[in-house]
Specification:
It contains seven helices and seven strands. By secondary structure, the protein is an alpha/beta fold.
Length: 191
């Protein structure tokens, strides 16, 4: 890794660790975020991407406090629902509304943008960010099928909720590439 002498990646799921991209010099471990097995005061940076809602947050923050060095940084983020433009966004919102009841309850803090999480460190405002991709309509449809709510809808109802909106999305999208944007909710704390 060009910026760190050592990188340790953890996940509670052995399957996730086994399927991780093995590029770079990264040590992979199966470990819960709340019990990392890392030594006290040994870490400069902890990052959590689109996963904090699965943690016991209080236990995780205590573990972060234990393993972070003084001056160490905790950064956690999630992305919000994507936007494209005034023609496409209503169809995306229709798909989201159709599967809304199938999101796991833990995901509510993502929708609320993490406001109730009290960091045990100095909270640092570092501005706004977003993910940007240039996609065709089919790529957005495929992405929406990966939503846990869409997967749960399919399991419960035996039908693809995204497919039912494919024609409407295609008509709104047209036959071209469009820019898709996901606003990032980012919280950063310094120990």
């Amino acid at each position: 890794m060009p910026h760190f002498a050592q990188v340790v990646a953890t996940d509670a799921s052995e399957q996730q660790i086994e399927s991780a991209d093995r590029s770079g010099d990264i040590e992979y471990r199966v470990a819960r975020a709340e019990d990392s097995g890392l030594p006290d005061n040994s870490i400069d940076l902890i990052t959590v991407a689109q996963a904090l809602h699965w943690f016991d947050i209080d236990a995780f923050l205590a573990e972060a406090d234990r393993v972070l060095k003084p001056g160490g940084v905790l950064a956690f983020w999630c992305y919000q629902n994507c936007t494209v433009d005034d023609d496409v966004d209503p169809v995306v919102l229709d798909i989201f509304a159709e599967v809304e009841d199938y999101w796991p309850p833990e995901r509510q803090i993502v929708e609320e943008e993490y406001p109730t999480i009290a960091l045990p460190f100095e909270d640092v405002d570092i501005g706004e960010f977003c993910i940007v991709a240039d996609w065709r309509a089919e790529q957005l449809l495929d992405y929406m099928r990966t939503w846990s709510a869409a997967q749960r809808f399919m399991a419960a109802n035996g039908q693809d909720p995204v497919a039912r909106h494919a024609d409407a999305l295609g008509a709104a999208w047209g036959d071209r590439t469009r820019q898709v944007r996901w606003p990032i909710v980012l919280r950063v704390g310094v120990k």
